[in-house]
Amino acid sequence: MKQAKTKSAFDATRLLFILKGLVVGILTGFVVSLFRILIEGSLHLWTKLYQFIPGHPLIVFAAILLSSLLAIIIGLIVRPQPNIMGSGIPQVEGQLAGDLEMDWRHVLWRKFVTGVLGIGAGLFLGREGPSIQLGAAVGQGMAQGLKDNGISRRVLIASGSAAGLSAAFNAPIAGTLFVLEEIYHNFSPLVWMASLAGAIGSDFVSSNFFGLVPVLHISYSRSFPLYLYWHLILLGIVLGLFGYFYQRVLLVMPQWYARFIRLPRCFHGLIPFLLVIPIGIFWPHTLGGGNATILEMGHFIPGLMILLGLFVLRFIFSMISYGSGLPGGIFLPILSLGALLGAIYGTIMSRLGLLPDIYIMNLMIISMAGYFAGIGKAPFTAIILITEMVGSLQHLMPLAVVSLVAYLVVDMLGGAPIYASLLTRLNLGKKLNELSGKNDRIEIPVFLESSLNERQVRDVSWPSHSLLIAIRRGDHELIPHGDTVIRSGDTLVLLTSCNEVSTVRRRVLEMSGVKPDL
User: For residues 326 and 68, what is the distance between their CA atoms, to the nearest angstrom?
Assistant: First the structure.
């Protein structure tokens, strides 16, 4: 009997998603390229204005008036759509997780305009976060136009996010990895193929506008030698400690603004807009997200005291800028702070006779990846991003060593990925708004035999009408996130409506395997 030949049918699903991702990437490339051009043009004009002020002191009043007006305009645009505040990356992450829903039309134009006005005014904010949210909005818009829902819609949003980062930094591989590692948390073939197609499409478009030279192209003389690798361990520890400190300060900034600034949240941007004026007058070349600072150090590394002063200035004012809620990212500010820490470490070691001067530049490059790996807890993205932005493969091993050490230090200190922590704050506010009427707190201890012991927060089906707002561990009170592990000896602090206290308490005790006292 003759055996029938079987022919495998061609599945066009992946090809279709790649083509969709490519279209999203091309559209995002044009949007983000225009975004970059307007920011750079605006920053150039502001820098010229500040350089003109010393000879014409009365112009400072015009600068104050203009800065105040821009802050008010941004506040008015942000107020109806608070999800465009900040970098936008936590919002995109929440959108892909199903926790947030946004109108892509409003996000697209509002984020674009406010980003140009704020970042272009010289505030210490990055363009990469807004670029990611702009790309996600383009992907969502295309999904709506094609009437794609469910997984198809999420894939297009993810591909737009990757395209946004790719166009912002001319780094397509890092854009794809960032979406998989930090935003989508899933290495689905459809997601990574569509994201890569989107990132390549947007990089092609942006390269036609800005050329093929890497964004942070820095020349160095020699590769970092193996006999000096012990420096990488010490540097990774330093970056991890400073990265954890960065996380803690950044997360508490909104509370400080709420406590000391008696203005509506959407108008908190008035503070950094006014404070940037003296910075612009005295140090105009430090304005912006920090890429100019990095490139200048690539040609000449200043003395130790200047490096320390730059680090303090950039750290404090980047916190003030981002903590105000102005639309802008922390990507570039993190990289610039990492570069400064690397230069400071290298300069100190050189003065002690423990490191040749020629390798300070290497440490500056390597530290950018390590600092971001610790704060964002995305080491693969950090390694590939710096490799693409610098335009050299010679640093892969040192980048990996420093990034891994910094990551482990932040992890041992209990630090969470910064964007996941910011998303937790967003969801906290959303859930608090859902709890109507008078609320009450419930505190429930976790015993050694409890079934909640050693479980992650995200793996627990918490009762409806309740919100886990804190975990008290010893003398510390942690803000929980999805990766937080519940341990014996912890005290869970839940918020619920007054009329649900008994029900929620009984339900949590039952989940933990403890018989509630009736």
Answer: 13
CA 175 to chain centre: 13
Q: Span 13-210: which CATH code? A: 1.10.3080.10
Report how far residue 377's alpha carbon sits from residue 240's, in angstroms, rounded to the nearest whole number.
Answer: 10
DSSP assignment of 13-68 equals HHHHHHHHHHHHHHHHHHHHHHHHHHHHHHHHHHHHHHHHGGG-TTHHHHHHHHHH
SS (H, E, C) 191-216: HHHHHHHHHHHHHHHHHHHHCCCCCC
Query: How far apart are the C-alpha atoms of 305 and 310, rounded to whole Å?
Result: 9
Q: How big is the CA angle at 412 (ends 396 and 188), to the nearest 5 degrees? A: 55
Q: What topology does CATH give the domain 226-266+275-418?
A: Clc chloride channel (1.10.3080)
Superfamily of domain 435-511: Regulator of K+ conductance, C-terminal domain (3.30.70.1450)
Provide the sign of the torsion angle of the four alpha carbons 110, 113, 117, 123, taken in this order. positive
- Output the tens digit of pLDDT for each of the chain's 518 residues: 444 444 455 567 788 989 999 999 999 999 999 999 999 999 999 999 998 888 787 888 999 999 999 999 999 999 998 889 988 888 898 888 777 788 999 999 999 999 999 999 999 999 988 999 999 999 999 999 988 887 888 889 999 999 999 998 888 888 888 888 877 766 678 888 899 999 999 999 999 998 887 777 777 778 889 999 999 999 999 999 999 999 999 989 988 988 888 888 889 999 999 999 999 999 998 999 888 888 888 888 889 999 999 999 999 999 999 999 999 999 899 999 999 999 999 999 999 999 999 999 999 999 999 999 999 888 888 898 888 877 667 778 999 999 999 999 999 998 888 887 787 777 655 555 555 456 667 888 888 778 888 888 877 888 877 788 888 887 777 878 777 888 888 888 888 877 677 778 888 888 776 655 44
Q: pTM of the entire structure?
A: 0.81
